[in-house]
Design a protein that fits this description.
The protein is mainly beta and 69 residues long. Helix content is 0%, strand content 43%. The protein has one domain. It has no helices and 5 strands. It is globular, with a radius of gyration of 11 Å.
Length: 69
């Protein structure tokens, strides 16, 4: 499953301080080999170079606080 910019996703990376948090995709990057990585924005920062297999679509009710302002 691929993701698009502005989609809400859950990050699953035990080495990240944002593991298990919902964030918003702010950028997608494709390598010359066809691999896609993402930059995810969270309330307290961002994570770059996230592979697709570390992401899961967020439930519809799990939007970030950025949308409430």
């Amino acid at each position: 499953m691929s993701f698009e910019e502005d989609e809400h996703v859950v990050l699953h990376d035990k080495h990240s301080e944002f593991d298990g948090e919902v964030g918003t995709i702010t950028q997608t990057m494709e390598s010359m080999f066809g691999d896609v990585t993402y930059t995810i924005s969270f309330e307290d920062g961002q994570e770059s170079g996230v592979p697709e297999d570390a992401l899961e679509a967020a439930p519809d009710d799990a939007e970030t606080d950025d949308d409430d302002e």
